[in-house]
Amino acid sequence: MHERVLFLSVNFAIAAHFGARVTVAFRRLRNPTRWDLLFIKFGLVPLCFVTFQFSKLAMITLGVPQTQF
Question: Over the stretch 9-23, which tens digit does the pLDDT of each residue have?
């Protein structure tokens, strides 16, 4: 039980941090800088993939049946 709470709180902190970054990047998309485009291209896409894989691995480690995700 404690592992799940820790896992969810860590995921929430990561999502909140990068959600704020994404919000700032998308607000500036009308006039994006080179850094905004690099963040979206090389930061956001790999981050989504890595977060999904990490979540999947963590759920397997915690013993959640794979049919639930």
Answer: 777 777 777 777 767
